[in-house]
Design a protein that fits this description.
The complex is a heterodimer of chains A (about 450) and B (about 425). Chain A has 2 domains: about 140 residues, Urease, subunit C, domain 1 (Roll), CATH 2.30.40.10; about 280 residues, Metal-dependent hydrolases (TIM Barrel), CATH 3.20.20.140. Helix content of chain A is about 35%, strand content about 20%. Chain A contains 16 helices and 16 strands. In chain A, strand 8, helix 8 and strand 9 form a beta-alpha-beta unit. The longest helix of chain A is centred in the first third of the chain and has 17 residues. Chain A is globular. The radius of gyration of chain B is 22 Å and the shape is globular. The model of chain B has no long low-confidence stretch (mean pLDDT about 95). With about 425 residues, chain B is α/β, with parallel strands linked by helices. The longest helix of chain B is centred in the N-terminal third of the chain and has 17 residues. The two termini of chain B are about 15 Å apart. Classes of the chains: A alpha/beta (about 450), B alpha/beta (about 425). The interface between A and B is large, with 60 and 66 residues.
């Protein structure tokens, strides 16, 4: 057998070239990763120092912003835009003013400014990305078979996990994401090493990428002896207490959920549970979590269910009922937008004001090799899947890529960017949000906390 | 879009082309399974649009010009088997579809209104669309072109101009497509005229019931034109339910009666097959395979999922295409065939090395480097020099990761990105 590595050495292909493997934009528009390294240098010379905390202050001119909807006979037929000057100070947007084409400023060249994308469910710590190709192997034994596989392969994967996390972050950045909620394995095999490596990778990127971390007991809280490590992780700089299928993995919903909720309350963390169970146990887990959040109102707004496939199996009345209860408890749903066998009732959830966010989950790993790294592609997928084809409907789908932010509200009033908003944004080759979603328009620039990433 | 450089060449050698050589198996407790694809770097000689030799060894003694493939993977070029190159908004200012046009008759009325303006720039836009598809490695398309009283022959003529302008790097089979019905608008005479043209390869159609409310009358005309002019058939069939199935069955019967239509008759979309129960489907699939009627699908996934694995298991020829890239019907087409097969792999659960590698055939019009047994069958001496170079280690990776296309070759003419 000829080794796969043959591809790389004679061809002289660099890792940089490998990064672009996942590019799904037009060939040639994929952002050269070298550009990702160019940061604040481009903008630091502009503007003068002020006395506020962050002295980085500059203006972007010729920035295209959405200003409203154009209606014809009651239907939104187009999105209006205009060119503006946007003033940035450090991590904040200072002002949005009328355009001055002749100003000494960074020229956005008429590109559309949108909120930077946010990947709200990903495993940055555990990926083959940046390593050689390998397809998924079907293993018997379901999730427990996968746990066994992880126990075998994680020690090896951990050896360069900080490096691969860095590469994966660059992929996400090239697709317009400036932020991720990453789950990070906490179990007896990795102990806290997966977390430490990811924290090191994130520290390297701290001027170009933000993240919040979920301590993820991938091998069960009790199925493997993970509970002590979860406690330790809760004190080690994570933001959410995670979990996975309490019934399937640990054999008991209440015991695991009580542990999770208890830890979140004790350490003042959020909760984000992977719930793949489709049957009654899934629904009982949802019910129990809602009850716990109702009992502990401080968990409202920071408790999430990832995947939550059981909602897809319910009839519409029951879906509506659960959606109302999730909304009341301010429990959000994070979905990778599955299609084919199972379709999540995302329009129903949104209709009842449940916070819905999306993420890539696996980019390329032993669970799946299909992730592109783009949450805009997820919004596009959702638009196709749920028949959101019109100007208005497409523009609303952008919220999935941005974890909720849209330039215009439903009535067509500009609500972003506004003075005081975080200076995390992208510049795109697109005329409006609707086009960006429908055509998966290329991301030309990414800014994080006012720093130009590329 | 990327810049591709073009070169017309008669004779050259591509060196350092990564070619698939077989499957690697691993023994496990659960038996042997294919866990990887083996590959080798080889030279491929090209002369007059054909591959003349696939070989290993020193090229220094060769006189031909040499192009370094730099270890990129060589795959058969991609074929988009259902697209409307003549009727696109790609390259025009963004325009979402409207919710106000609900029925096919609304759409026909809308087309009658906008086509005159669209025709003014349709040659240029077809070329832009071809450029998009080519950036994703497509060198061939089966394209439908509108033939109806509003367009007359102008949609065809404009498309032919575009195809003439790109003929060194792209080819297409043309389907005469009576988008506004054969009888709902007065299109029968136009279709009859179009059928006589050498440039037209297929007689098209759309929902004989849904548009014309006359399954037999429409199909009799279609089949008659195909037989009289020695053409193939490719009918759009969105109709579901009884009428959809009646249409499929009537077409099967007609092809059985006229065996010369076997192997060149196709049903595009054929949504009705996605609505049948397993037993009925299995029977229809068998008859389609027997009549050698192919199915062309844009791989729907919202609500309706086509039973493509069932069809191929019964030996039905299945092709894929983008259909609408960006027009007044849909704005969601990427233009990429790799994106389609990636979608198929996700939709149908093709996640293993073997399944991903087999999925590639839907991007290439059913040409694969390796047979199902893992024997290399492409490229071989005598094959057309129609291929792409992608940045990937094997077909499976290319499908799973939608790997970037670095070069495409049509009739031996190579177009490449700056990276190559």
């Amino acid at each position: 057998m000829v080794k796969k590595a043959d591809k790389y050495s004679p061809a002289g292909l660099s890792r940089k070239a490998f990064i672009k493997n996942a590019a799904w934009t037009l060939v040639g528009t994929a952002i050269a990763p070298t550009l990702l390294k160019a940061r604040a240098a481009d903008v630091s010379g502009l503007g003068s120092c002020h006395n506020s905390g962050d002295s980085r202050r500059y203006i972007l001119k010729n920035v295209r912003l959405e200003t409203g909807f154009e209606y014809k006979e009651g239907e939104v037929v187009a999105t209006r835009t205009g060119l503006f000057c946007v003033e940035i100070q450090g991590k904040k947007i200072l002002s949005v003013k009328h355009n001055e084409p002749d100003a000494t400023a960074v020229d956005a060249e008429g590109r559309l400014m949108l909120p930077a994308f946010r990947d709200m469910h990903i495993h940055l710590d555990k990926t083959f990305y940046g390593d050689k190709w390998q397809a998924v192997r079907r293993l018997p034994g379901g999730v427990k078979g996968m746990i066994q596989l992880e126990q075998e392969i994680l020690p090896d994967m951990l050896k360069n996990s900080a490096y691969k996390a860095g590469k994966l972050i660059e992929l996400l950045q090239s697709k317009g994401s400036a932020f991720a909620r990453s789950h990070v394995n906490i179990e007896p095999t990795s102990k806290l090493l997966s977390l430490r490596h990811l924290q090191a990778a994130l520290d390297n990127k701290k001027q170009s990428f933000g993240a919040e971390l979920v301590a993820f007991p991938q091998h069960g809280v009790f199925y493997t002896d993970t509970a002590p490590y979860m406690r330790e992780a809760a004190k080690a700089g994570i933001d959410f207490i995670g979990g996975v299928d309490p019934y399937t993995v640990d054999g008991a919903i209440e015991r695991t959920m009580d542990f999770t909720v208890g830890l979140a309350l004790e350490f003042d963390k959020g909760i984000d549970i992977h719930l793949h169970e489709t049957g009654d146990s899934g629904l009982r887990t949802v019910d129990y979590l809602i009850k716990k959040v109702e009992e502990n109102p401080k968990l409202k707004g920071k408790t999430y269910l990832s995947h939550c496939f059981c909602l897809a199996r319910l009839d519409q009345a029951k879906q509506q009922d659960i959606a109302l209860r999730l909304a009341a408890a301010q429990i959000g749903i994070v979905s990778t937008i599955p299609f084919g066998g199972l379709i999540m009732p995302i329009p129903t959830l949104l209709k009842h004001k449940v916070k819905v966010m999306t993420g890539n989950d696996s980019i390329i790993d032993h669970w799946s090799t299909f992730g592109t790294g783009s949450v805009l592609e997820k919004a596009h997928l959702a638009a196709q899947l749920y028949g959101k084809r019109t100007e208005f409907d497409l523009s609303r789908m952008l919220a999935l890529a941005t974890a909720g932010r849209t330039p215009l509200n439903d009535k067509g009033v500009r609500i972003w960017p506004a003075a005081g908003d975080p200076s995390d944004f992208i510049l795109m080759d697109a005329s409006c949000s609707a086009e960006a979603v429908a055509r998966i328009s290329p991301v030309k620039s990414l800014y994080y906390q006012g720093y130009k990433v590329f | 879009m990327s810049e591709f450089n073009n070169k017309r060449q008669n004779s050259y050698i591509v060196k350092n082309a990564l070619l698939e050589t077989g499957f690697a198996r691993e023994e496990s407790a659960n038996g042997s399974f294919i866990h990887a694809t083996t590959t080798a770097l080889q030279n491929v000689s090209i002369e007059n649009g054909k591959i003349t030799r696939v070989w290993s060894g020193d090229i220094r003694a060769e006189r031909s010009e040499v192009i370094d493939a730099k270890g990129y993977l060589m795959l058969p070029a991609f074929k988009d088997m259902h697209v409307h190159l003549d009727k696109t908004l790609y390259g025009l200012p963004w325009q979402a579809v409207s919710s106000r046009r609900k029925t096919i008759y609304d759409m026909i009325a809308y087309e009658q209104q906008i086509i005159p303006a669209l025709l003014k720039t349709s040659t240029h836009r077809a070329e832009q669309l071809i450029g998009l598809m080519q950036s994703y490695g497509t060198t061939f398309a089966r394209t439908h072109f509108n033939i109806e009283p509003t367009s007359g022959f102008r949609s065809l003529e404009n498309l032919q101009k575009a195809l003439e302008n790109v003929k060194d790097r792209f080819d297409a089979d043309l389907v005469a497509f009576p988008q506004h019905g054969v009888f709902y608008t007065d299109s029968a005479a136009l279709l009859t005229e179009a059928a006589k043209l050498d440039s037209v390869r297929f007689i098209g159609g759309v929902d004989p019931y849904g548009v014309d409310r006359a399954i037999e009358k429409v199909l009799d005309l279609t089949v008659g034109l195909a037989l009289d002019n020695d053409k193939g058939i490719d009918i759009h069939l969105h109709d579901s339910g009884k009428e959809g199935l009646d249409t499929v069955e009537y077409l099967i019967r007609k092809v059985e009666e006229n065996p010369s239509l076997k192997g060149k008759t196709f049903i595009s979309h054929a949504f009705v097959l996605g609505r049948l129960d397993a037993k009925v489907l299995s029977g229809v699939a068998e008859r389609l395979a027997e009549a050698r009627i192919g199915i062309v699908s844009s791989i729907p996934f919202a609500g309706l999922v086509m039973p493509i694995p069932v069809l191929t298991r019964h030996g039905v020829q299945v092709f894929a295409g983008n259909d609408n890239i960006q027009d007044h019907w849909s704005t969601f087409g990427s233009g990429s065939m790799l994106q389609k097969v990636h979608l198929m792999a996700q939709l149908y659960g093709w996640t293993s090395e073997y399944d991903l590698s087999r999925a590639m055939k839907f991007a290439t019009g059913n040409i694969l480097p390796l047979s199902d047994e893992g024997v290399r069958i492409w490229p071989a001496a005598g094959d057309l020099a129609e291929f792409v170079l992608v940045e990937a280690s094997c077909s499976a990776e290319t499908v799973a990761r939608i790997s970037p296309v670095k070069a495409f070759v049509h009739k031996g003419n190579i177009s490449w990105t700056a990276d190559l």
